[in-house]
Amino acid sequence: MTPTDLTGRTIVITGASSGIGASAARTLAARGATVIPVGRNHERTTEVAKVLGTEPLFADFGKLEDVRALAAALLDRAPTIDVLVHNAGAVVHEPKTTADGFELTAQANYLAPFLLQHLLADRLSNSKARAVITSSAAHRMGRLQLDTVFTVQRPYRGMPVYGTSKLLDLMWARALARRTDSTGVTAVACHPGVVRSAFADASPGPMRWLYGSRLGRLVTISNAEGAEPLVHLASLSDPRTVNGQYFDRMKSNASISRQAADEALGEQLWARTVEVLGL
Ligand SMILES: NC(=O)c1ccc[n+]([C@@H]2O[C@H](COP(=O)([O-])OP(=O)(O)OC[C@H]3O[C@@H](n4cnc5c(N)ncnc54)[C@H](OP(=O)(O)O)[C@@H]3O)[C@@H](O)[C@H]2O)c1
Q1: Using CA atoms, how far apart are residues 112 and 119, in angstroms rounded to an integer?
Q2: Distance in angstroms (rounded) separating the CA atoms of residues 17 and 202
Q3: pTM of the model
Q4: Annotation marks residue 162 as catalytic
């Protein structure tokens, strides 16, 4: 099948400096899209941008002031945003509270993208944009407790906290999709697979082994393979056909955890998020 020609489309990708995001950025640009890569590491993001033929933007999602500056730069630079790929994310192995007062994983993986989407809301509405959100099968390890989810809990364990942040991403995608009739903006979430990116580089033993060893190569996939769901969802001609869905790799309507499916809880999460971000 011939890949869709994306000439004329503007696609913003966060987490584009590395791994899945960088690979998706290259493929989408090769199909004709104008891709704006957003990264935290200046050198890596600039390298990716060179290949794409565009200028990079930088933001550390551990700082909400960076997110506000990023939104302002995007409003300045992109009269239309057809696709916003929320892909930046990480496991944080030590308990950390940001200067904004939130647990770092929850902020970087969920609150910061939520704020970015909010600050760009009018531009996204006018563009009839789609949000493509990199969640994870790890959302099943997550557990949402509304009163404590944004603060460091002890004992701190990085993977369940990461899983919870990916649960929040999935619930957010579904909440955005419930608002499509009023906003014109669609949303879809995906699990990219277990991908040999830089994702586990800072992880303790077993996880780094899984991602880095020769045996691990048998159960992990390449960045290009991991990027396939993002590329597919960013390229679809009618995003309404997948609005609110969760893709497990290329499988549509994949199963999700009980909390992820709970719409009432999803609305409570939305309200709590708006409250803590002061929106
Ligand atoms: N790899 C997997 O097996 C897997 C499985 C399920 C889901 N995912 C998700 O896939 C997405 C991409 O990860 P990847 O596998 O491609 O890993 P990666 O190679 O480590 O890439 C992660 C990207 O997120 C950015 N990022 C991380 N923390 C950030 C922060 N605080 N502020 C701004 N940007 C930040 C990184 O920016 P810099 O490099 O510029 O710092 C990088 O561009 C993540 O959301 C991850 O949770 C990965």
Answers
A1: 11
A2: 16
A3: 0.98
A4: yes
Instruction: Supply the pLDDT for residue 58.
Output: 98
Residue nearest to atom 43 of ligand 1 (CA): 15
C-alpha to C-alpha distances, 133 to 27, 113, 226, nearest whole angstrom: 17, 9, 13
pLDDT digits (tens, 9 = 90+) for 38-84: 999 999 999 999 999 999 999 999 999 999 999 999 999 999 999 99
Residue 6 has pLDDT above 90, yes or no: yes
Q: Which residue segments constitute the domains of the chain, with CATH numbers given?
A: 10-277 (3.40.50.720)
Residue 26 has pLDDT above 90, yes or no: yes
Q: How far is the CA of 40 from the centre of ligand 1 (A)?
A: 10
* Region at 278 (left for phi over 0; alpha for psi -120 to 50; beta for the rest): left
What is the pLDDT confidence band of residue 201, given thresholds at 50, 70 and 90? confident
Ligand 1 cavity residues, CB under 6 Å: 15, 17-21, 39-41, 44-45, 59-62, 87-90, 108, 134, 136, 191-192, 194-195, 197-199
For the CA of 223, the nearest atom of ligand 1: 16
Buried-state track 20-46, b at ≥16 Cβ within 10 A, e below 16:
bbbbbbbbbbebebbbbbbbbeeebbe
Q: Which atom of ligand 1 is nearest to the CA of 137?
A: 6
CA–CA separation, 237 and 233 (whole Å): 9
Stretch 167-179: mean pLDDT: 99
